[in-house]
Design a protein that fits this description.
6-stranded antiparallel sheet
């Protein structure tokens, strides 16, 4: 999977917006100003940082050598996944969906309802 393919998947979510974080050379994907993905290169490899529960983040890191705590984000919740590694694309898409759902859960009910209309 490439950064472009993942970015396209992220941007297909309702309300998705992107912004460039120039200091980190990363594209942040947000819904209503809540970030749910950060697409970037890490050590010259395509990668994405996603939010997950601390328990899921720990499990992913234990089971996959291509999942690491995110360098610039809360390490308990955010993990960086290499897109060119051993994680199947289907699992990466699932984790993007889960991160998006977590972002939605932080939004006011009215905003969530507007996004689902």
């Amino acid at each position: 999977m490439t950064n472009s393919e993942l970015l396209q998947y992220c941007m297909n979510k309702p309300g998705a917006e992107q912004a460039v974080h120039s200091d980190w050379k990363a594209t942040q994907i947000k819904v209503a100003d809540v970030m749910y993905a950060m697409v970037h290169d890490v050590e010259a490899r395509p990668a994405v940082s996603l939010k997950a529960s601390p328990a899921l983040a720990d499990l992913l890191r234990e089971q996959h050598s291509d999942v690491h705590p995110s360098a610039h984000l809360n390490k308990a919740h955010w993990s960086t996944l290499y897109l060119d590694g051993t994680l199947p694309d289907s699992q990466i898409y699932y984790l993007v969906d889960a991160s998006y759902q977590q972002a939605l859960s932080l939004l006011p009910q009215e905003t969530r309802q507007q996004l689902s209309d």
